From TrEMBL:
GO terms for molecular function: metal ion binding. This is Succinate dehydrogenase cytochrome b558 subunit. Membrane-anchoring subunit of succinate dehydrogenase (SDH). It is found in: Membrane. The lineage of its organism: Bacteria, Pseudomonadati, Pseudomonadota, Gammaproteobacteria, Chromatiales. Keywords: Heme, Iron, Membrane, Metal-binding, Transmembrane, Transmembrane helix. The keyword Hydrolase does not apply. It holds the Pfam family Sdh_cyt. InterPro entries: Cytochrome_b-558, SQR/QFR_C/D, SuccDH_FuR_B_TM-su. It comes from the Bacteria. One of its GO terms (cellular component) is membrane. The keyword Heme applies. Its cofactor is heme.
């Protein structure tokens, strides 16, 4: 799928496509993994989470630089180019009703879902903390307040599972596009590895969400 598609791209589009693919894994996928692990520390309570986890990160030198250049800008590029790819999407599902085509669709639909989730999530945490110091100083309490509403909890669980699916499925297609898994057997086996990774990350993420509940 990937190589046939790439054959029709001009060199600059090809490079942008490869950049989009690479950024999905590094740094965005790596950050997502770190972020889920970081938030799984919620289960050790407010004191531990606010002072040992959040405060330690907030005291990091060059934090804004890292947030901007290692997280925000790569994510903005990946999301903008991802939306452009999604806009060009052909209705292939109806023509080829196979599992891989469904995943091709799901990758795009999950991308759009993640975008909505991230805008609300970043807006109500990191950005809100900029003008409300109380939020920044007690992120545990802030998250607990929000997640105590079952609707918000459901929204967070969905955003989290979409992100984890998108990363795990993206990893398996990436390996094909970059020529790492060429045989059907290698693709199937690596698919199992990606599924396992998705399940572990999903479990860590849900565990973290539950850790905020009273
Ligand atoms: C948690 C944030 C995200 C992570 C960790 C992530 C990760 C990835 C990875 C690893 C891939 C595989 C690259 C490949 O197929 O070569 C991918 C593909 C893709 N991503 Fe994301 N992504 C994220 C957010 C988004 C957002 C917000 C959008 C925008 C709508 C998006 C749209 C896409 C699309 C359309 C593809 C498929 C590209 C293709 O098949 O050529 N992603 N993503």
């Amino acid at each position: 799928m990937g190589s046939a598609m790439n054959a029709t791209l001009d060199p600059s589009q090809f490079l942008l496509r490869r950049l989009h693919s690479l950024l999905g894994l590094l740094p965005i996928g790596a950050f997502l993994t770190f972020h889920l692990w970081e938030n799984s520390q919620s289960r050790f309570g407010a004191e531990h989470y606010n002072t040992r986890v959040v405060a330690t990160l907030q005291e990091m030198n060059y934090l804004v630089f890292v947030e901007l250049f290692v997280i925000a800008l790569p994510l903005l590029f990946h999301a903008a180019y991802g939306l452009a790819i999604t806009g060009q999407m052909r209705a292939e599902l109806s023509r080829y009703p196979y599992a891989r085509n469904r995943f091709y669709w799901l990758q795009r639909i999950s991308g759009v879902g993640i975008l909505v989730f991230l805008l609300l999530h970043v807006g109500t945490t990191r950005l809100q903390g900029l003008w409300q110091p109380a939020v920044r100083d007690d992120l545990y309490g802030h998250m607990q307040g929000m997640l105590s509403d079952p609707l918000v909890f459901g929204f967070y669980a969905l955003g989290l599972l979409l992100s984890v699916f998108h990363l795990a499925n993206g990893l398996s297609t990436m390996a094909i596009v970059w020529g790492l898994t060429t045989s059907a057997r290698a693709q199937r086996l690596f698919g199992y590895v990606c599924t396992a990774l998705g399940l572990v990350l999903g479990a860590i993420g849900i565990h973290g969400l539950l850790g905020f509940l009273p």
